[in-house]
Amino acid sequence: MLRFILRRLLIMIPTLIVVSMLIFVVINLPPGDFLSNQIAELRATGQEAGLAKAEFLRHEYALDRPLAEQYLIWIGVWPGPSGFNGLLQGDLGWSFEFGKPVAEVVGETLWFTVILNFAAVLFVYLVSFPLGALAAIRANSWVDYLAAAVGYIGLATPNFLLALILLYYGQKWLGLPIGGLVDPRYENEPMSLAKLGSILHHLIIPTIVIGLSGTAAMVRRLRANLLDELGKPYVVTAKAKGVPPVRRLTRYPLRMALNPFVSDIGSLLPSMVSGSVLISVVLSLPTIGPALLEALRAQDQFLAGFILMFISLLVLVGMLISDILLALLDPRIRLTKRSRS
Amino acid sequence: MSETRPKPQGQRPQDWPHYVDPEPWSPDDDALPASRLDPGASAARLMLTRFLRHRLAVLAALFLGFSYLSLPFVNFLVPHGANERDVEHLYAPPQAIHLFHEGRFLGPFVYPTTGRADLREYRWRYESDTTRPLPLRFLCPGEPYRFLGLVEARLRLVCPPPGGSLHLLGTDRLGRDVLSRLAIGAQLSLTVGLLGIAVSFTIGVTLGGLAGYLGGWVDAGVQRLSEILKSLPELPLWLALSAAVPAHWSPVTVFLCISVILGLLDWPSLARAVRSRFLALREEDFIMAAELMGASPARIIRRHLLPNFASHLLASATLSIPAMILGETALSFLGLGLRPPATSWGVMLNDAQNLMAVETYPWISAPMIPVILVVLSFNFLGDGLRDALDPYHDQ
Fold first, then answer.
1. Radius of gyration of chain B (CA)
2. Which domains does chain A have, with CATH numbers?
3. CB proximity B333 to A under 8 Å
């Protein structure tokens, strides 16, 4: 098992390298950078005073060097103007837009992002498992149709609009809070039970909205898998031998149908994290979504680069966890030498 | 069994007399029933029959066909231009078309509405004057537009009556007709998916085909790259890419860029499908038979491989168009996709960003309905195609 995890971790390293390259190229696609734009603006308006500072910063953050060198410095495998200080050394760089280090800008939002996505994944599992299983056992009953209907809504509605609508009616009918992730009362207070409660209360709508399309996909998948299993001869044998219905279901078919259920979360994660970024912007949740949008608009490259890196890492770690869970669940995966792809 | 069968005489079956049914029998009777009713029908015919059995898919196909075919004539069909402003009616609610006025049939007409600013609740309120019916005009000159982008034209199917207004789905913040914008926005919103899928198809089929054909390190490279791309969250990357589109470019260029961006990240699943199909089909007996009969590789690919997975690709392409339409909506909604004066559903929904829109002026969110319909239709159509395109696979 340990070897499996180690091998899986080793695979992640080249993946992360390629991902970081991709991200670096993407954020450097727009012509110029934050500082060169600022310098041009200062020149145009004749403010010579700020020029020296901007030029100094440009040199300080190595923006005047070739792109490949900038990349290596950003990662932290090449000495920058002030020695090795890249992502590997834990230095996330400077946010020009906010005038603070990136670490300070993102700060707590990283945790909220993780919490929000974790809650969404949990929601997907908790809802889609019973719903999918019921839909398969009672195929073509009202439960099945209800699951299908919810699925199609989740599939087809743009989730940002769904968020707005749920927010409005959630507030009107159920008194759910609007916007943010915690009551303003607890904004600067240390974590307490009351604050945790407030966070959970605020999490309800974002979690539902982010999880809905994933839930839809999972319900469909579990239903199809379980229906396949239920049609197999061994189930008939079990029935003929008089195994009671619940035992007949949980003993084998459900376990068999569970594997794809666990492994699929890996392929769902990217779209869920995407959704969380979008929903955070719409509902103004303090996750890294709004900061990302701001950074991309202003070409604040270190901030945007780090956030994109973090989001990708979040997905990769989530996939790693789902792979480990799957290996725990299914010995066949552990024992084959080849990694599952 | 016939009734003349004698009763068994012993206790055990082997004690029974040997019995032969006297009825006439031919070996054909016991042949398995044909799995298909018309074994001689062509594959295309079978696909069609099977597709037609899928009610929802047929409905979806009709709806999408109608939508796409009417795109060139949209400007003629709607009463207003996309950026035509009616300053007398800002945030006007949807208007109804009436047929009867005080029990008398008048043909389609509307009542004039006048707005006043409600300063206490800070919103517009509209009252209609139900004493003055204003009949609609048909095939009348309206705001000029360019038919098919070429010919200057003014003719419209229906126009607001003189002195009145015609806003069937209300108006937005600037007094622009929501229905007209919705229909005109469909031009961009519906084509963005097609262009995007064209881009992703080209990349996916090329890379997938190369990987499947060449194997070795090319295969490994393409596999790894597509795995990595698949594991990246799409939207943030789309955002980053479209943030790179300069703001001063023309709407058409921006539109093309956005389509390419949407297609750029979508190819991995397609490439994998092409590759695995390629590998699987190469092992099939009929390919070997063709090879043994001396068919050239080009002929094998053209006559045997391509028809076998072209249909599969078509279905999977249909299923990935909705993601692109939703992607465009999300990008434009965040202000990083298409930008005004271009009109698309996402651009329109950009106005519906706040709660006020949901609460006070719900008709601003109207573009949501065509988005849902189109996305659902593509899904049903894709499902139907996927089932239908595999005619020899029984249900």
1. 30
2. 17-91 (no CATH), 105-340 (1.10.3720.10)
3. yes
Give A87's contacts (C-beta < 8 A, 6+ positions apart): A20, A74, A75, A76, A306, A309
Distance, CA of B235 to CA of B241 (rounded, Å): 10
In this prediction, residue B62 carries a pLDDT of 93
Question: Are the Cβ atoms of A160 and B330 closer than 8 angstroms?
Answer: yes
A297:B234 CB<8 A: no
Handedness of CA B301, B303, B307, B308 (dihedral sign): negative
Q: Write out the H or E segment, with its range, that includes residue B60.
A: helix B55-70
Examine the pLDDT at A340 and tell me if it is beyond 80.
no
Residue of A nearest to B333 (CA): A160
- Superfamily of domain covering B181-389: MetI-like (1.10.3720.10)
Domain boundaries, chain B: 95-166, 181-389
Q: Is the pLDDT of residue A113 over 60?
A: yes
pTM of the model: 0.81
Q: Does A16 touch chain B (CB under 8 A)?
A: no
From B262's Cα to the closest Cα of chain A, the distance in A is 14
Contacts of A110 by beta carbon, 8 Å cutoff, 6+ apart? A288, A310
Query: What band does A187 get if pLDDT is binned at 50, 70 and 90?
Result: low
CA distance B138 to chain A (A): 35
Q: Rounded CA gap, A59 and B352, in Å?
A: 43
Distance from CA of B302 to the nearest CA of A (A): 30
- Tokens 């029935």 belong to A239
Structure-block tokens of residue B365: 């969110």
Q: What percent of chain A has pLDDT over 90?
A: 0
